[in-house]
Amino acid sequence: MAGGFSVSGSGTEFEAKITPIVIISCIMAATGGLMFGYDVGISGGVTSMDDFLREFFPSVLKKKHEDKESNYCKYDNQGLQLFTSSLYLAGLTATFFASYTTRRLGRRLTMLIAGVFFIIGVIFNGAAQNLAMLIVGRILLGCGAVPLFLSEIAPTRIRGGLNILFQLNVTIGILFASLVNYGTAKIHPWGWRLSLSLAGIPAALLTLGALFVVDTPNSLIERGKLEEGKAVLRKIRGTDNVEPEFNEIVEASRVAQEVKHPFRNLLQRRNRPQLVIAVLLQIFQQFTGINAIMFYAPVLFNTLGFKSDASLYSAVITGAVNVLSTLVSVYSVDRVGRRMLLLEAGVQMFLSQVAIAVVLGIKVTDRSDNLGHAWAILVVVMVCTFVASFAWSWGPLGWLIPSETFPLETRSAGQSVTVCVNLLFTFVIAQAFLSMLCHLKYAIFAFFSAWVVVMSFFVLFFLPETKNVPIEEMTERVWKQHWYWKRFMDDDNHHVVPNGGKSNGNGTYNNGATV
Ligand code: BGC
Fold first, then answer.
1. Which atom of ligand 1 is nearest to the CA of 286?
2. Residue with CA closest to ligand 1 atom 6
3. What is each CA distance from 111 to 108, 203, 208, 239, 421, in whole angstroms?
4. Residue having the nearest C-alpha atom to atom 12 of ligand 1
5. What is the pLDDT of residue 447?
6. How many CA within 13 A on the CB side of residue 287?
């Protein structure tokens, strides 16, 4: 397979190849992204379909076709928002269980269980007779975040790009969902059932795939299955010469197991930079306003006077821009670096949001029904510009940066916190956006643009560049060099010193713990 290369871990070079098994594992893990994306993208289109509204939200349907109601408020309904948001609230809860099952049963079995939940959720949704069934279905869908799997199996050199593969699959899932909605909207009265049921395809793929996928060596070794771990390592690295890397993982896992309270450990002063950055990146990612578009694009375009068909069509366009721009990130993240992408995107997101707010502010009065053709196109173009910049920055990097900054001893706990915070704020946006749109009107976009300014300044001053820095060398090369974060690096007393403190001479210890 693709030529061999060396993997740098804690200053040691390991022999490694991208073997078919690495690729298959990553594809399978990325299917999780596809499932997630499909569920992100499907709800907005479905909620804009009259057949669906007639069945579950007749009052919204009435408002939609009434002239009396303010355009901005047509879809302002808590139940409707709950249909979208419940998935993320459930996902949040599931993350705690997933982190437990991952530790006890491994990632593979966890993926299998997640797949089964998904399939039952899909059945509930596709067959829903009332709102309760819809919500229960969405809750069951709310499991399945697998980025940790990806970042651990990935050799350091391509870690960035591979992690973004997860995000790429999320965007493909969203696009796929918009395309499906565009088609099913024409099937009356059950097209929406088809939309919701098709989520079963990636779910079935994941479940099947989990049967074939390998557990990561780290995961096996952490659970004491040393021989199995070594065998998998040989397979995924494509060489028998894995002893040094194997020993390092064993040692690192021993050290990790000595950490009795991973969450308490996460709160220690020296872990502050990673924690603060991970938490803030998730909040910021959601407050870019991206999911206002991803969840509600068809509803939003409908609000602006687009006809049903045009709304769904426009959602397909933004979905396609999302996928293509994520590819830009895959290509550039390890070349131009994280900070550059985030800062450029900050400017672009700000300008496009302000432009949207201005056009809507001037052109869409409460009762006027239409934007006018040219203005409508301008809004769609601005939405696309916004989505593009998000897709090559905050979208993938919101996930990548936390996964590459936590050291092994806090990675699992850190990753759970990251996912939880993300899902919590995704839930908040899903539950609040349509109500906020009703109250703030066009100014909702000014609201998000103000957040973009705040997060860009955060990046400018507080986010160090992590391009090409192995996880194990973060402390030395990143945190200790940073004008602000270095102050948290001074209490060496709590550092775990493995191997009786034998240094390998370059500031790092053999297991990768940096002192
Ligand atoms: C975010 C999702 C969002 C998606 C859009 C992801 O990185 O976490 O909330 O829907 O990007 O592409």
1. 9
2. 395
3. 5, 10, 10, 27, 21
4. 171
5. 98
6. 17
Q: What is the rounded distance in angstroms from the CA atom of residue 118 to the CA atom of residue 120? A: 5
Instruction: Report the nearest atom of ligand 1 relative to the CA of 394.
Output: 7
* Residue whose CA is at the smallest distance from ligand 1 atom 7: 395
State the burial class of residue 307 (Cβ atoms within 10 Å of its Cβ: 0-12, 13-18, 19+).
Answer: exposed
- Tens of pLDDT, residue by residue over 88-138, are 988 888 877 776 777 788 767 877 887 888 889 999 999 999 999 999 999
Ligand 1 atom with minimal separation from the 294 CA: 10
Alpha helices in 213-307 (DSSP H): 217-222, 226-237, 243-258, 262-266, 272-287, 290-303
Q: Which residues contact 224 (CB under 8 A, 6 or more apart)?
A: none
N-term to C-term CA, the chain: 37
Ligand 1 centroid, distance to 291 Cα (angstroms): 7
Spacing, Cα 494 to ligand 1 middle (Å): 36
CA 369 – CA 24 distance, rounded (Å): 50
For the chain, what is the mean pLDDT? 83
Q: What is the mean pLDDT of residues 381-399?
A: 96
Q: Identify the pLDDT of residue 500.
A: 37
What domains lie within the chain, and their CATH numbers? 20-213+259-488 (1.20.1250.20)
Phi, psi of 504 (to 5 degrees): -90, 10
Residue identifier of the C-alpha nearest atom 8 of ligand 1: 395
If 0-12 CB within 10 Å is exposed, 13-18 middle and 19+ buried, where does residue 59 land? exposed
Residues 71-81: pLDDT tens digits? 889 899 999 99
Nearest Cα residue to 447 out of 461, 435, 459: 435
Bridge partners for 4 per DSSP: 17
Residue 289: name the closest of 505, 132, 126, 442 by CA.
Answer: 442
Q: Measured between alpha carbons, how far is 494 from 497 in angstroms, rounded to an integer?
A: 9
326 Cα nearest atom in ligand 1: 12
Rounded Cα gap, residues 44 and 305, in angstroms = 16
- pLDDT single digits (tens) 269-305: 989 999 999 999 999 999 999 999 999 998 888 888 8
Residue nearest to atom 11 of ligand 1 (CA): 395
CB-based contact 431:82 (threshold 8 Å): yes
Short-list 37, 49, 34, 21, CA closest to 426? 37
Query: pLDDT-based confidence at 372, cuts 50/70/90?
Result: confident
Residue indicated by tokens 């601005």: 382
Mean pLDDT of the 191-210 span: 87
pTM score: 0.84
Paired tokens of 412: 């699992």
| Ligand 1 atom, smallest distance to 391 CA | 12
Rounded to the nearest whole angstrom, what is the distance from the C-alpha of residue 6 to the centroid of ligand 1?
Answer: 32
Ligand 1 geometric centre to CA of 261 (Å): 31
